[in-house]
Amino acid sequence: MHRILAASLLSTFLCAFSGLGRTSDTVRQAQQTLKDKGYDPGPIDGINGPRTQAAVRNYQEKEHLDADGQLGPKTLDNLGVKPASAGTQFGEAGENVKSSYSKGGKDMAEGTKEAGSALKHGEVVDGAKDFGKGVGHGAAQVGAGTGHAAKNAAKGVKSAVSGDTNKHK
Fold first, then answer.
1. pLDDT at residue 83, as a whole number
2. How would DSSP label each residue in the chain?
3. Residue ranges per structural domain of the chain
4. Using one digit for the tens of pLDDT, what is the confidence trace for 75-84?
5. Are 130 and 110 in contact (CB under 8 A)?
6. What are 110-160's pLDDT values in tens digits?
7. What does the pLDDT read at residue 68?
8. CATH architecture of 2-79
């Protein structure tokens, strides 16, 4: 009975240890890339600790990714560490469009609302400025999201056509 228990523990440890080696290499690559891009992940040690997670979260916010602090497929792909599958890339492109168009629409609506309020009070010039700002900010959101979506869709097409998800540029 003790032999079975010992063998089970040993095999579990060996499986976990071999997985950690692979994971720590990926984390180390991500840490180095984050550092190269100006984010401080702490020491390049392959440990996904609090400083690395904070750097990942800051990077994700800047890149308009889900800022969860995790080194998931989308973040690793965006960093250039490990390419995501074509399906993930196409899904991300759709999320880019949905999010940016939603935010852009809200900005435009807010500008229109402020313009309406200004016009109601006889402030035509201020109303025109408010409307212009809303449309400008909204169009910027839509443009940024469309650019991110095009980039992700292109990566998805490349992965799907080449079938090679091990090369990443």
1. 80
2. -HHHHHHHHHHHHHHHHHHHHHHHHHHHHHHHHHHHTT---SSSSS---HHHHHHHHHHHHHTTS--SS---HHHHHHHTSSPPPHHHHHHHHHHHHHHHHHHHHHHHHHHHHHHHHHHHTT-HHHHHHHHHHHHHHHHHHHHHHHHHHHHHHHHHHHHHHH---S---
3. 2-79, 86-162
4. 998 899 988 7
5. no
6. 888 888 888 888 888 888 888 888 888 888 888 887 887 788 778 777 777
7. 95
8. Orthogonal Bundle (1.10)
